[in-house]
Amino acid sequence: MPAFYAGKRVGKPLLNGHTYNALFNGKLVWPLDKDTVVSIEITDDKGKPLPKSLAVSGTLKLGAKATYADGHVGDLLTTNDVTFASRDTSTATVSGNTLTWRHGGTILVTATVNGFTSAAVSISAAYAPESIKVTDDSGKPIDNITLRVGESKNLKVTILPDAASQEFAASAARPDIAVVGDAKPTGIQVTPESLTLRVGETAGLDVKVLPEGADQTVTATVADKSIASISRKGVNHG
Fold this sequence. Notes:
The protein is mainly beta. The protein contains no helices and 22 strands. Strand 21 (about 230) and strand 22 (about 235) form a beta hairpin. The relative contact order is 0.10.
């Protein structure tokens, strides 16, 4: 704690490198080095490093270790003698040492020990899905679809916001009328379309299965393997 004289803050009374103290109401005016916190490390309640992210609706138990001016590191603190806080309660709140997710974004957590507050530690808060956007291959929004017998339609599903998990399970309300499954390949796009190679030369090909949502696994072969061969690294001319 600081000391004041005539309303002005005064420095520590140092003499030959030693601090000379005084008592006020039975307490030392200046705390001893062994009681002076100079840094705080925020961990989980087991003393392990904090995770980089917090899942939707997730919670996390916090802990803290303080380093003092005399160099020693204090015991792990979880609920007693430490106060944790969230700088943005819209992303997460803190009760005791329990951090609770509220919204996607960046969580900033601080710990206070003996009047010293640590620098904020950041944790990424996952975004919860808020809406679903369905489009066709051209990107046109789809609200409903009409299909004839045997027809199919490729749809692209996007979870909003974009930072939210894109995992979803699609199903048809009437599976006797239509079913939903993985996109079926409709074409293959190879770049470049043609190649001319000399003996010993190699080249790379970019193969893309259409539409984008279809399985991109491909197996490439050469009609005459005595002329050229194909590997995952590119085309070789023998």
